[in-house]
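In pairs, describe these two lines:
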Amino acid sequence: MDLMFPKDDYHLKYFGHQHGKAPRKFVAEIFPRIKKYQLINIHKYFDLDPGTSLEAKELVELISIAKYINAKEIIEVGTFNGCAALNLATNLPESTITTIDLPVDEEVDINDIPEKDVNVTDRNGVGRCFKGTQYENRIRQVFADSMKLDWNTFGKKFDLIFIDGCHHYKYVKKDSENALAHLNEGGIILWHDYGQSEGVSKAVDEVESMEVIAIKGTRFAIGLNK
């Protein structure tokens, strides 16, 4: 087998961690007792798009971390098809999930963002995984450009903030600033595509008020209170 040119192009992404300076640790090194929280139900596994959404391993670790910190208020930037929000609601029955994505019926000016960073979901498919389920009443869909969204309108702070929206540096920077200003004491921030996306990595590396660690085997970076 020619390891330089694998037959499965998807395999290449595991070698794509070219950016970022955060130290790398396995999630169980960061949270030694996390194995107590690994009893998880995965809903709509086959809706996980390997090119865009979370890997199954990443979804499991996202849920495990949320359970570990007993997250009650969760916010996600970048709804995509709603699979992450659905699974968080499924596995954390006392939680409320707020999820943000671009307006469906409005034009949003993203012309200055390179295509590789846009990360825009098919507008007809935003949140489709949780729509019509018994968990939908605990998931609040917010349609807004996160660059312009005033998080003060939520009227609360969050225990877990998951950032996976536009991957351009200026968006990740703004999303991170909002997250830092609206994080509960003891809460955490998770960024997706750290290491792969230059814009994400650059913005996350500039966060100085938290300890930032890249989670081995995933595309996550996690921000912890120092």
